[in-house]
Amino acid sequence: MSAQVNRAELEDKVKAMYRDVAENPHGEFHFEMGRALALRLGYRAGDLDRIPAESIDSFAGVGYYFNLLDDIEGARVLDLGSGSGMDTFVASLHTGPTGTVIGLDMTDSQRAKAEALRRRHDVRNVTYVRGYIDAAPFEDGSFDVVISNGVINLAADKPQVFREIARLLRPGGKLALADIVTDVQLPETITCNTTLWAACIGGAWQAGRYRDAIAAAGLRVVAEQVNEQYRFLSDNAQGAAKKFGVKSVSLRADKV
Predict the structure, then answer these.
(1) For residue 110, which of 154, 73, 72 has the smallest C-alpha distance?
(2) Is the torsion defined by CA of 3, 241, 252, 185 positive or negative?
């Protein structure tokens, strides 16, 4: 049996890193953040102009996927790993006032920042909930759409995350995500390194294995794109990306 990442240590490092993302968004990280990144990935300037700027400062996503969704006006949307809230605020623009958006995140400082911004800007159709993406505190079939950006690669049990997404979606519901995958399987020297996991590299799965896990959960991939505009910043991250084909993809999968 292959070696496994230490889950408790991984959770601590992920929480610590994303606490820094929330509280010190202009610090040094393995990955890029902020408005310039969001625009380069494909977010519309008009949408970003309508949401809290502080949520954009702490945006650490890896791609854009709203273009893969049909009209979601009035939809019930769940954002897995919602961070400081940028994608929840963008989703709230797309659902309109008749829709609802829930952000689920395990990091207290991220949720606190998002909630403070929601209150300050009087965004009434968004709420934030503490929890884990592989064991969400919601009933079966609660959502029309599940979204996630750069988060599932951080999960130690990805098949369970996709099973949970399938459980949460109503029949015909849609998953739209951006995440980090690889061209080849990463060696254990990387996959057992919790620091590289927290940097969105160590936990990345080979792209075919990732799609197979989605399909095994009862979700059918209907659209996919490579996000050529995403790049890592640190030398270590760039080296791993080049050697193992680490890249960002966005995809949509519908519940069968």
Answers:
(1) 154
(2) negative
Place of tokens 């505009």: 229
Say what the pTM is.
0.90
**131: alpha, beta or left, given left = phi > 0 and alpha = psi -120 to 50?**
left
Q: Which of 38, 114, 101, 105 is nearest to 72 (CA)?
A: 101
Query: For 161-188, how does the pLDDT look when each residue is reduced to its tens digit (9 = 90+)?
Result: 999 999 999 999 999 999 999 999 887 7
Place of tokens 């994303």: 18
Question: Distance between CA atoms of 1 and 89, rounded to whole angstroms?
Answer: 42
- As a whole number of Å, the end-to-end CA separation of the chain is 32
β-pairing, 247-255 vs 219-226, is antiparallel
Q: Map residue 132 onto helix, strand or coil.
A: strand
Virtual torsion, Cα 115, 168, 204, 256, nearest 10 deg: -140
Please identify which residue in the block is written with the tokens 């969105």: 200
